Amino acid sequence: MITQIYNTLVDKMRYADGIPLLLLRLYLAPVMIQAGWTKAQSFDNIVNWFGNEDYGLGLPFPLVMAFLATAAELVGGIFILLGALTRLVSIPLLITMVVAMVTVHAKHGWAAIADSSSWLSDGTIFLNEKVMEAPERLAAAKSLLQAHGHYDWLTGSGNFVILNNGIEFGATYFVMLAVLLFYGGGRFVSVDYFVSATRAKKTL
Q1: Got the DSSP string for 159-189?
Q2: Per-residue confidence at 110, pLDDT binned at 50, 70, 90?
Q3: Which of 18, 96, 155, 194 would staple 186 via disulfide (CB 3.0–4.6 Å)?
C-alpha cells in the first residue's frame, strides 16, 4: 500500500520535473550575466590580466581568451535564463569554470570565505595556511576599526569576513551547469522544450 502511494506520487511529480531545472537556471543565469557584463565593462583590463605573467594568469592569446570568457558568460547566461540551447551553451561555461578553478582559485583551496574552523580548511581535505591565519588578521582588523573607525556602523549589515577566493563557488556553478548539460532547460519551462514540441508536431 505504502509502496503504491509512493510510486503514484513519484509519477505525479514527473509532470513538474522542469521546476527544479527552472529554479537552477534562475539562480545561475544572473551570476553568469553579471560576470560577463563586468568583464565587458573593463575588457582591456581583463585582457591584460589574462595575459600578464607577473600579476595575472599568463594565459596564451589573452585577447581571444578574454573574448571567449566574456561571451560565454554574458551570452550564455542570457540563453540559460531563457532555457534556449541550454545543453549547448552549458559546454563553454563548463570550460570557463574549469579554467577559472585551475588558474585562479585552486591555489586558495576550497573555501570562498576564510573559516579556520571548517574541516574543509584544516587539512582534513584542503589545507590553506592563509585560511588558518585568518582569525588573527580579522581580529587585528576589528581592533583597528574599533579604535579608529565607526565600527558599529561598518558592521551594521553583518560581521566582517576575510575572502579566501577558493574553488567553492566555481565548483558549485560547475555542478549546476553539468545538471543543465545532462537534463536540459526543463519540461514546460524552457524555450528548448517548446521548440522540441513544435518540431515533434510537424513530423507527425
Answers
A1: ----B---SHHHHHHHHHHHHHHHH-S-TTS
A2: confident
A3: 18
The whole-number pLDDT of residue 125 equals 58
| Cell numbers for 104 | 585562479
pTM: 0.86
Contacts of 48 (CB under 8 A, 6+ apart): 56, 62
What DSSP string runs through 122-165?
Answer: BSSS-B-HHHHHHHHHHHHHHHHHHHHS-HHHHTTT-----B--
Lookup: cell for 12 = 505525479
Contact present, 36 and 79 (Cβ < 8 Å): no
pLDDT value for 47: 94
* Three cell numbers written together for 109: 583551496
Q: Which of helix, strand or coil describes residue 113?
A: strand
Nearest CA-CA partner of 99 in 125, 127, 60, 131:
60
In terms of Cα–Cα distance, which of 22, 73, 68, 74 is closest to 180? 22
